[in-house]
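Reopening this ticket.

The earlier resolution said the output was attached, but the attachment link was broken on my side. Pasting everything inline this time so it's all in one place.
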Amino acid sequence: MLLEDKILDDYKEAMKAKDTLKASILSFLRSQFMNVRIDKRKDKLDDSDVIGAVKKLIKQHQDSIEGFKAGNRQDLVDKETRELEILKTYLPEELGPEQVKQIIEEALTALGATTMKDMGRVMKEVMAKTAGRADSKIISDMVKEKLTPKTPQQ
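Inline output:
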């Protein structure tokens, strides 16, 4: 079953159960899928497109939470946090730091990468293998650390 279909089923269940918060966030998510479909000129989205839309919405919620905290709006922080938890259930399980490190090591070895000039090739390889299961910022930082020459301590 595709992730998009699961989200549609969950939306229908939330409507039947009169779970307005879940129904509302899933309805909004489904409208995001429609936008992605139009942008990509597709009838059906694959799971990577769906995960991308979910991640984008999660990022928006995280930004909103920060803004509401700054504005002392705890009621809105709570609502956004509950919606964020619902959205996170649709993401694949995150890879741990050790698993990411292993994938980076394998990519470095396979590509023979040794300098920062190889950063783009390594990132492309690692991102393909992690496929949305790890934060790209963390991956980027780890790859940079591996490719940056170590200076001897004085």
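Reporter confirms the inline version is readable. The first helix runs from residue 3 to 16. The chain has a mean pLDDT of 84.
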